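Troubleshooting: if your tokenizer reports a length mismatch, compare your output against this known-good record of 320 residues.
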Amino acid sequence: MKKLLAMLLLGVLVISFAGCAKEAPESDVAAGGDGETYTMTLITMDSMDEHWLKVKNGAEAAAAELGNIKVVFDAPQTKVDATVQAQLVENAIVNKSDAILLAALDKEALKPVVEKAKEAGIPVILVDSGVSTENYDAFLSTDNAAAAELAADNLAELIGKTGKIAIINAQAGAGTTMTRENAFRDRIESQYPDIEIVGVQYSDGDKQKALNYATDYMTQYPDLVGIYACNEGSTVGVGNAVDQAGKSDSIHVVGFDFSADVKALIEKGAIKASMVQNPYVMGYEGIKAASTVVSGGQVSVRDIDTGVTVATLENLADIK
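Known-good structure output:
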């Protein structure tokens, strides 16, 4: 009898152990999505600006949270060569990346490779700056037109709705920065007839170039009262030019993006306001969207506005 009970108990233990062994893989699948590991390539405009590093940080945070994604980060050495960026997309296609996240330098130049990636069955998630095609899976960006109109209203108020202003933009062909320029210009021309835009220069996002252009404008137009800058590098360059010229009280700078340099120049008063995007959210939600697509799903909203905040001296402590 004792021998029979011992054998029955041993059988129960064996069955229980076997049941536990079967449950472990199920929990791994739940933690890692569909159980497969995916490589996703994130290609930005450069690898130096804090804006793009925040996109990268958001993407890597989402990948770590999902547990089954590896993020490969790549970018051109400079922001001026869309051909190089297109080649990076080609490389991702050749390497059979499971998904591509792209912040396009030029909306026309990147169109062929984006469509090529889609033809190869690779999901494409656009972040920050778009491409002249509808052949993509999701687009996460600031509503750049609305943000540019907000920048125009802010600058108009600062200068009393009258006077001469200049624009320092980044890349001439980038969809994002051209929208910021054109929407700003349209807002000024339609709502503020006493404000004159004396010109626009393209700095390629280079801080020194932006500084030089701003200095030229201040020299050419001694009665200049404002400058609008369209990205982080341009904003910092313009802010430094105004600061070095000692004209922070007479020339009002409104810019785009946020970094340690922008923050320091706002604290000095050389920049009065900057339109702050959410690059971390772009990267984070971009990876989440890519994960949905590669797993066979579909994003519920294809074009996603990631929002904007106006950074000023008054709310600087709350801006991250």
